[in-house]
Amino acid sequence: MTSPSQDTVDYQTRACVVLWSALTLLWAVLVMLLVTGLISLPQAGQAGLDWEAAGPAGLPSCLAVCAAVSLISFLTGQVTGNVSQVDKLWSIVPVVYTGLFAFQSCTPRLLLMFLVTASWGTRLTYNFWRRGGYSWPPWAGEEDYRWAYVRKWPVLNTQIGWFLFNLLFISVYQHFLLLALTLPALSAALADTDLNIFDLAVTLTILGLVLIESVADQQQEEFQNEKWRRIRNGDTLNHPYSTGFVNWGLFSMSRHPNYLAEQLIWFFFYLFSTAATGQAQPSCQNR
Predict the structure, then answer these.
(1) What is the Cα–Cα distance from 223 to 216, expressed in whole angstroms?
(2) pLDDT, mean of residues 92-118
(3) CA distances from 231 to 5, 164, 224, 244, 245 (A)
(4) End-to-end CA distance of the chain
(5) What pairs with residue 284 in β-bridges?
(6) Hey, how many other C-beta atoms are within 10 angstroms of the C-beta on 270?
(7) d(CA 62, CA 56)
């Protein structure tokens, strides 16, 4: 790796560390203010959820989309033999679900939730595209190499076993999992509360984590591109390329910094519902 590139990686890494520290400080201050009573969340009694309003809030539309894409993914996988159809929709359908909730309710909180979900989806879609994840026709392309090993497992190595696994786990379970990730938007749609400082903190945190993910993606992409360039040219793979995996920049601090940020994104996305209802687990409205 040349010196200018190393300088760029070091600058990116330091910037991400500063951003991470700032977000940590932000939440430390917010928690301290919340514990001391200087700020508060909405009262649970004011933010009880009327689940009978889930229909107008957009849940039926989301369930219909989820059922449709599950069926399409299953049938396409069965016909083509490529069961990696869900991967192509992974970064898209959560944006659609949050968009449906936002379209039905159109509140400032839902618009913020759609903004952060769209930012997350744009980053992941772009990274999937540049790594060859999309092709034409859309059902073509390479299957995830791990499914070849899963096909060899007992029961799954039978025709009926793989049929059921593709239907229930690969297609149905994964798509409903993606829908479940966005259900805090339903709580936010049903809660009749104004924006507060926690909504803004969650928004800034998620956008910051998306930025950290993007930097990690780029560092990994540059490492792999250079490694494979040297392999194609027959060059000797010196350290760090001889290790096979990126271990500089953010990856010198975490084996999977983008995966760490990914898990945190959905944790903080859930906090939108807490900001809306004042409860860690939203309850039904008392009648």
Answers:
(1) 11
(2) 95
(3) 19, 41, 10, 11, 14
(4) 66
(5) 49
(6) 15
(7) 11
- 10 Å CB burial of residue 8 (0-12, 13-18, 19+) is middle
DSSP label at 167?
A: I
Residue 70 structure tokens: 């599950």
Question: Can you tell me whether residue 227 is helix, strand or coil?
Answer: helix
* Selection from 82, 118, 119, 84 nearest residue 100 by Cα: 118
47 has a pLDDT exceeding 90: no
- The reported pTM is 0.90
Whether the CB-CB separation of 70 and 176 falls below 8 Å is answered with yes
Burial tier of 252 (Cβ tally within 10 Å: 0-12, 13-18, 19+): middle
User: For residue 58, what are its two tokens?
Assistant: 């957009």
Identify whether the C-beta of residue 196 lies closer than 8 Å to the C-beta of residue 42.
yes
Alpha-carbon separation of residue 97 from 17, 93, 124 (angstroms): 32, 6, 16
Given a contact cutoff of 8 angstroms between Cβ atoms, the answer to whether 265 and 124 are in contact is no
The torsion angle over the Cα atoms of residues 31, 37, 39 and 42, rounded to 10 degrees, is 100
- Whole-angstrom CA distances from 104 to 15, 117, 194 are 38, 16, 17
How many residues are given for the chain?
287
The band of 3, judged by pLDDT with boundaries at 50, 70 and 90, is very low
- Buried b / exposed e along 69-96 (16+ C-beta atoms within 10 A): bbebbbebbbeeebbbbbbbbbbebbbb
Neighbours of 211 (CB within 10 A): 16
- Give residue 218's identity as a one-letter amino acid code: Q
State the average pLDDT over residues 272-287. 74
